[in-house]
Structures are given as C-alpha cells and as structure tokens.
Prior knowledge:
Layout: H1 5-15, E1 25-28, H2 34-44, E2 47-50, E3 53-58, E4 61-70, E5 75-77, H3 86-107, E6 120-127, H4 132-142, E7 148-155, H5 158-165, E8 170-175, H6 195-203
Parallel strand pairs: 1-2, 1-6, 6-7, 7-8
Antiparallel strand pairs: 3-4, 4-5
Helix pairs in contact: 1-2
Keywords: Glycosyltransferase, Transferase
Pfam family, one: Pribosyltran
GO molecular function, one term: glycosyltransferase activity
Amino acid sequence: MFRDRLDAAERLARRLSHLKGQAPLVLAIPRGAVPMGRLIADALEGDLDVVLVRKLGAPGNPEFAIGAVSEDGSVALEETARRYREEAVTRETERQRALLEERRRRYTPVRAPIDPKGRIVVVVDDGSATGATMAAALSTLRSRGPQTLIAAMGAAPPDTVARLETLADEVVCLEMPWNFQAVGQFFADFRQVEDEEVIALLGSEHG
C-alpha cells in the first residue's frame, strides 16, 4: 500500500536512480501520473513531459478498458472489445480522441512537446490493470525512435507486466499481486488530479 502517488513516485525514483546523470525524458500519462512524473524527473535530473493516451472504457462500464487511443490517432483494441457493438466502440473512441485534442491545446502553451528521439524515455503511470493504456503509449513512442524505453508504475498484475515487457526495454513495477482488482486499492490517498495541477507541474522546472 502506498500513502499516495508521491510515495509510489519516490520508490520508483529510487529504483531508477541509475538513470541520474543521463538526462532521461520522463513522460507521464495524464492526469494521475503527472505529479509522479514531476517528482521522478526532478530526482533523476531529467525532463518532464506527457504522453497523451486514453483508455477506451467499455459501454456501460467505463472503468473496464477495452482498448486505448493515442494522440497520433492510433487505436489499439483488446480482444474484449469484440463483445460490444462496433457503433458503441466507435463513439467511445471519438469521445476520447476529442478529449486528447483538448488536453494538448491546454498543455502546449506551458510545455511544448519534447521529441523522444535518441532519449532514454521513462513512461510513468500510477498503475495498470489491463495494460491497454501503457501499451498504447509504449507502441506510439517506440515508433519515434527513443534510445531506451522504460515503463514505470506503482502496481499491475503479473500478466500485465509480462505483456508490457514485450513492448518496453525494461518494466519497473513496485507491486505485482495476483489478486489485482483496481489500481486505487494500492493507494491510501487516490484523489483525482485536476488539469490545473497538471498545467502547473508541466510549467514548473522543479517540483
């Protein structure tokens, strides 16, 4: 159990301490992971930016991921997406795409996107249940030519970690229980992070 996201971030920063001095690019998945990314980037003396991906929630059960959509427009669907009507999945995809576009409009004035090409890239999230969102982020970033691609998160089930290990050069996950139910179960404080906090953190040079 973590006290909060910053507690998890401190532990991840210790696990990633070998990157200090190599100017890593820390890419947080908004919004929850951005406070974590700020702390990790500061600890490793790296740069902070965001990677914009969104989970596609199942119709009628938005917390259950049936895929993910990336800012570049690419969509990755899970096998479970076949259970739902194509029209419903398309509507959810378009809704999340619009949200990504709005976020980029809000974030760009304070943090222009940083090119990951040739960089050591650490993708940070608070946790991953199915791996859909993190997998979409890793796939999108891989095509942009990073030197090394690392996935870092607080908690995920073992099968999700195994899946992500096929997409990243390294996966750092603090908690990997078989009885995984939801990311929030590992945090005493799992309050929502608002866009205003994200913008403030992206605009700061130090946390």
